[in-house]
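Quarterly update from the structural biology core.
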Amino acid sequence: MKVLVIGDSCEDVFRYGTCDRLSPEAPVPVFKPTRTIGNGGMAINVFENLKALKVDCDIITNDIRPVKTRYVDEVSNQILLRVDENDKIKQIQASEIDKIDFTQYSAVVISDYNKGYLSQVDISHVAHSHSLVFMDTKKKLNTWAHSVEFIKLNEKEFNENNEWLHTNRNKISSIMTKGKDGAILNFYDKFPIEDEHEVRDLSGAGDTFLAGLVADYIKNADIRSAIRFANRCAAWVVSQKGVAVVNPDKI
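Predicted structure, tokenized:
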């Protein structure tokens, strides 16, 4: 089985260091960098997690990527500052979407961080081109999302789209992720976290959840099983520092 991931990507950079004193010039900590770790984020993070879960997949994403740099205290793992550079992404060419052979894929994953790579029209076209589409989006939902099979949103995003999701609940399956409280399918079906881990870093957890959801669903065609598996993937990855890729042997 093969999966296509399409969406906007960034570079996640974590600069770890120590903060032992305040600056004499202003009431801010003096940050001394000790090490830097970087990896692909957003759609690329979904793609890398799918590969880690042994899913054959392709990705269509932007070449020029925004850079999100987090300055993190090494001892407490607290983020002191995040700097986003080149945050707007050039939209994908319609011709690039038109040449996709959707028949070779078992599922399509839309990872839309609403940075400009995919428009509502683009998403609608992709969703109409395949019968099994999973989507995680930061856009306000409307009719352009009607052909998506499963929509995954965090609690804030879900609440912002509650009315639309409720109106379309017979057409689209919604999955709300609630962090330590697990996930909810279609408003009422609750899936608590089964194996809790110490939370170190929430960065990228939603991408890992989405990848786990897709990886399990294309094998078992059971969305409840897929949500439980996705919960386990996300619960493990938040116990790691930075944006980590899931390790199947640990879940």
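The first strand starts at residue 2 and ends at 7.
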